[in-house]
């Protein structure tokens, strides 16, 4: 990944003819990712939970990128029925999908469970995207050069997954739950890349993280918990330390479009993993554990009921 210094949205190759699905595209990094892909000619699907915010994002994108092809389709990653409905709509509406950006996520929320009974971070950040990717896989396999980019975080290094307690039933810590879900994102990418390679597929599975980017992700949890002081601290950090969402989206855009991205790459900001041009990022060794990837995959299939057509176990 040499020569990324100074890499910007102007370096994104032409995306004409590519259909890109971006989850959580109504704000922050997801919105910027969708906007810049549309600016370079991609047809963009704004996959968002809120119809109001998704529609507003589509209207905003149309103003900022006249002539852009972008449309909102509702997706609630915390509801597996919604994931299935979204995937069915995409398969019916689009002739192949060239890019899936698994961007949406939640961070450091109070203990909670989704409609399917799973811990919120694990369900939204990992299980929903695992199911979505599997359900869209036939459409991805139909497109030469297709990619799956899953957003993790440098905070994955705070905790490995506990394969015996994926839903945090024995104990719960909001930052631990978040870190484990981000580790799951990287293990999923690792195992998906292995399984694609074993079948000879050209689909590239890669991961990215934004460093410390200024989005509403940091303030959502303290606001939900009524922690005004904590919310103010995050707001201060966002103003003084964080880079803007436009910069935070660059690693995801690089992973999604740059020609030298390899399977299982992890792209993040170059300076200490916090800010700067996209570069290959350090990752915890447990995110490259083949056996852990297999166990998480098997558990995810069981918990979601989604199996990947055409992909068996990874070789070796």
TrEMBL record:
The keyword Nucleotide-binding does not apply. One of its GO terms (molecular function) is oxidoreductase activity. Keywords: Oxidoreductase. Residues 18-178 form the Ketoreductase domain. SMART domains: PKS_KR. CDD domains: retinol-DH_like_SDR_c_like. Belongs to the short-chain dehydrogenases/reductases (SDR) family. NCBIfam families: PRK06197.1. This is Oxidoreductase.
């Amino acid at each position: 990944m040499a020569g990324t210094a100074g890499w910007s949205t102007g370096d994104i190759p032409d995306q004409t003819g590519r259909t890109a699905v971006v989850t959580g595209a109504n704000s922050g990094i997801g919105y910027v990712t969708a906007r810049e892909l549309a600016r370079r000619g991609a047809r963009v699907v704004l996959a968002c939970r809120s119809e109001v915010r998704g529609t507003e994002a589509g209207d905003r994108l149309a103003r900022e990128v006249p002539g852009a092809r972008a449309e909102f389709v509702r997706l609630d990653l915390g509801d597996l029925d919604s994931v299935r409905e979204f995937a069915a709509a995409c398969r019916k509406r689009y002739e192949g999908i060239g890019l899936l950006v698994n961007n949406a996520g939640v961070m450091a929320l109070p203990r909670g469970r989704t409609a399917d009974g799973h811990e919120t971070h694990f369900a939204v950040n990992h299980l929903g995207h695992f199911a979505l990717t599997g359900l869209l896989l036939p459409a991805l396999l139909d497109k030469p050069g297709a990619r799956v980019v899953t957003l993790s975080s440098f905070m994955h290094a705070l905790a490995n997954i506990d394969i015996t307690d994926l839903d945090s039933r024995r104990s719960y810590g909001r930052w631990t739950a978040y870190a484990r879900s981000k580790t799951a994102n990287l293990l999923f990418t690792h195992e998906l890349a292995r399984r694609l390679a074993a079948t000879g597929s050209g689909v590239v599975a890669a991961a990215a993280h934004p460093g410390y980017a200024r989005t509403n992700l940091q303030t959502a949890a303290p606001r939900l918990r009524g922690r005004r002081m904590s919310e103010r601290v995050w707001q201060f950090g966002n103003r003084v330390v964080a880079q803007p969402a436009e910069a935070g989206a660059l690693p995801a855009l690089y992973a999604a479009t740059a020609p030298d991205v390899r399977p299982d790459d992890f792209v993040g900001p170059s300076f200490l993993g916090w800010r700067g041009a996209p570069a290959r990022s350090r990752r915890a060794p447990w995110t490259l554990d083949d056996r852990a990837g297999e166990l998480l995959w098997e558990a995810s299939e069981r918990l979601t009921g989604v199996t990947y057509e055409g992909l068996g176990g990874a070789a070796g």
